[in-house]
Specification:
By secondary structure, the protein is α/β, with parallel strands linked by helices. Strand 13, helix 15 and strand 14 form a beta-alpha-beta unit. The protein binds alpha-D-galactopyranose.
Length: 664
């Protein structure tokens, strides 16, 4: 397990460097990330490469026992480059060319830019690829820019030609006869600006994914060509950011990392765990937090600080969800850069800030658990299937302004997190063996391979939960010629007779588990969206009905359950977007149907209990108090040795505000 920070030695005189590295060491840091914006220092003039300073920084870090992650600097090209080669600059939707100086202003698919990126990365790899002091590479920084230049448009047209082969196929999949969009020449196809044809919009998102993947591949190839097999390659993603399909981009990386910032406000572990789980799910591997905020940021409405202790609880929370490293951004702010007021560990005066002390304690604690926690990972029985295609499709046709795919996913995620039940978030193509419950949060686009995957899952005894808006469209973003959930209708034993965006919530009468007579009928509400279900088979049970609302919904089934096959498989169709009380009730029912027992319900009181498990069965339990108050907790069968205090703990224990126990 690593602790570290992003350091920019190029901002400072070399005489200062050793003080910084000594302070990193004293804080318990084991890794340092450097280089990712330093192109103008590495190549101050075209073809003039200067890596001596970088070599010195690596040597110094190594002398203090810190390993190095080297960033390629392609998110911040030097001014001579963009000035001399104008076609490297990105163009926005309105045709405006970016100006130099604010990073990420280049076009990832400019051939000229790619040539320079290949060259600088190759030169770095020649110099550091065989240097074991460098443990890994970060390519670029937070890919984000989309280019709308003529060059981009031409490339998009070529890409479409590869995808669709014929214009007839494209015209048919996109229904282009509508509003006379029919294309008779590939050159006629535009880039979508604003709302546009759904097929074109989805294809463009996939093209952007392809563009970034190619951009990344150029650098991966250069590094791989020169590097030691032990050096890994990654990129720092941005959680739920959706400009491209992260499953595709991470396919070429060794593991994923992400940059976790709270911005204004405070961290809520019943929500933030989802972005960790998402990132872990990209490769189904542990991940790194490549950046996180040391107290505060500089870019939000109110850049409030995290409470004292909160950042540590966040660090442990990330570890609980599979992070193997926590790196703060940044070590010290440049005196003149755009991010002067961002939180850091070292102040403008060159001395540690108050926050440094919190990191130091974290460093001591990481050292205590590092060996035990190595090679362990979260192990879960519930998977959520997340699809960028589906999210893009809904964003293009929201139908209700407040319908947000991630918020919708969170309606299922948070009640589970409150029960300390952790989940995996996976691609719809992921192998689902080993899971008891699979949830489809608004999986509007439903490819045939996903239907096959889910059918296998249910037939082998799994419980599938199909939520609203699922199974409406094909992979071209075109409506199916059947009702929702498309080819899952038979498996679900139900279909969506009609969907409705709601002005006012619709009542839902939810009948409890009929087997337990003491449970009463729950009265809930469906918010913003409702789907009237129609059972398709005799085996389909109706678990909830809509009450009186718009007339169309009145009395219609809102939730159904269909038992499938001999192995105990089940499909729940959820036609309602329930208020939190009814949703909580539904979650209990889903857990019962899937055979999962919530053990620790302390999450509701702000205490997280999570486990990491090794291949040898070794289990490490993290107990984290995410509140500012003391909390107590009955450890029950979690009793064991706390690696942080060295004490054996059992029965009811108390946790200090933001306190943590790591039990084996
Ligand atoms: C991003 C970037 C960093 C820095 C931080 C500030 O995550 O990757 O370089 O700008 O934001 O919060």
């Amino acid at each position: 397990m690593h602790l570290g920070a992003a350091w920019y030695p190029e901002h400072w005189n070399e005489e200062r460097w050793e003080t910084d590295v000594r302070l990193m060491k004293e804080a318990g840091m084991t890794v340092c990330r450097i280089g990712e914006f330093a192109w103008s220092t590495m190549e101050p003039y075209e073809g003039g490469y200067h890596f001596e300073w970088l070599e010195k920084a690596v040597t110094l870090l190594n002398r203090y026992g810190l390993e190095v992650v080297l960033g390629t600097p392609t998110a911040a090209p030097p001014a001579w480059l963009t000035h001399r080669y104008r076609d490297t600059l990105a163009v926005d939707e309105h045709g405006r060319t970016a100006v130099h100086g604010n990073r990420c202003h280049t076009a990832a698919n400019s051939q000229t830019y790619l040539k320079f990126c290949r060259k600088i990365t190759g030169e770095m790899a020649k110099r550091f690829g065989k240097d074991a002091r460098v443990i890994g590479w970060q390519i670029d920084n937070e890919y984000n820019r989309v280019d709308y230049s003529e060059n981009s448009r031409r490339q998009f047209q070529h890409w479409l030609k590869d995808q669709y082969t014929s214009l007839d196929a494209l015209n048919s999949h996109w229904s282009t006869a509508y509003w006379s969009q029919t294309y008779s020449n590939w050159d006629e196809i535009p880039l979508p600006v604003g709302a546009h044809n759904p097929g074109l919009m989805l294809a463009f998102k996939r093209f952007v994914t392809h563009t970034w993947r190619e951009f990344q591949k150029v650098q991966i190839d250069e590094i791989r060509h020169h590097s030691l097999p032990s050096q890994w390659i990654t990129h720092n993603f941005m959680g739920w950011f959706d400009a491209f399909d992260h499953y595709e981009l991470t396919a070429d990386l060794d593991f994923a990392t992400w940059d976790w910032y709270v911005g204004t406000g405070h961290h809520d572990f019943t929500k933030t765990g989802a972005a960790h789980d998402l990132t872990r799910g990209f490769k189904r591997k542990n991940f790194w937090i490549m950046e996180t905020q040391p107290g505060w940021v500089n870019w939000s409405g109110v850049n409030n600080t995290l409470n004292k202790g909160e950042a540590s609880a966040m660090a442990w929370h990330a570890v609980a969800h599979g992070a193997d490293a926590i790196l703060y951004w940044q070590w010290r702010s440049a005196q003149g850069g755009q991010e002067q007021l961002h939180g850091s560990l070292i102040g403008a005066d060159g001395n540690p800030r108050p926050f440094y002390e919190e990191v130091k304690v974290l460093g001591e604690n990481f050292a205590k658990v590092s060996e035990v926690i190595a090679n362990t990972e979260p192990k879960n029985e519930i998977a959520f299937l997340y699809s960028y295609d589906a999210r893009w499709s809904i964003n293009g046709q929201k139908h209700h302004k407040d319908f947000n795919s991630i918020d919708h996913l969170m309606r299922y995620y948070s009640p589970l997190a409150e029960r300390n039940i952790s989940v995996d978030i996976l691609s719809p193509l992921a192998n689902l063996s080993g899971y008891k419950i699979v949830v489809l949060p608004a999986l509007v686009i439903l490819p045939d391979v996903t239907v096959e995957n889910l059918t296998r899952f249910v037939e082998s005894g799994g419980t599938l939960v199909i939520t609203v808006r699922t199974g409406m469209k094909d992979t071209h973003n075109s409506l199916f010629d059947t009702l929702q959930p498309g080819k899952l209708r038979e498996l679900a034993g139900a279909e969506v007779e009609e969907y409705y965006a709601l002005l006012d919530p619709a009542p839902v009468h939810f009948r409890g588990n009929e087997q337990s007579i003491e449970e009463k009928i729950i009265e809930g509400k469906s918010e913003m969206w409702a789907e009237a279900l129609r059972p398709l088979s005799d085996s389909t049970q109706v678990l909830a009905h809509f009450g009186e609302s718009n007339g169309w919904l009145d009395g219609k089934p809102a939730i159904t359950l269909n038992p499938v096959g001999e192995n105990g498989g089940k499909v729940l169709m959820i036609g309602a977007v329930l208020d939190s009380k009814a949703q909580s009730f539904l979650i209990e029912r889903i857990l019962r149907e899937g055979g999962i027992e919530p053990i620790y319900t302390e999450g509701k009181t702000g205490v997280e209990v999570a486990k990491r498990v090794g291949k040898d069965g070794k289990t490490v339990t993290l107990v984290i108090n995410h509140t500012r108050e003391e909390r107590s907790l009955d450890l029950k069968e979690l009793a064991g040795q706390d690696l942080l205090s060295g004490k054996s703990l059992s029965g009811v224990i108390s946790l200090l505000p933001y306190g943590v126990r790591v039990l084996i």
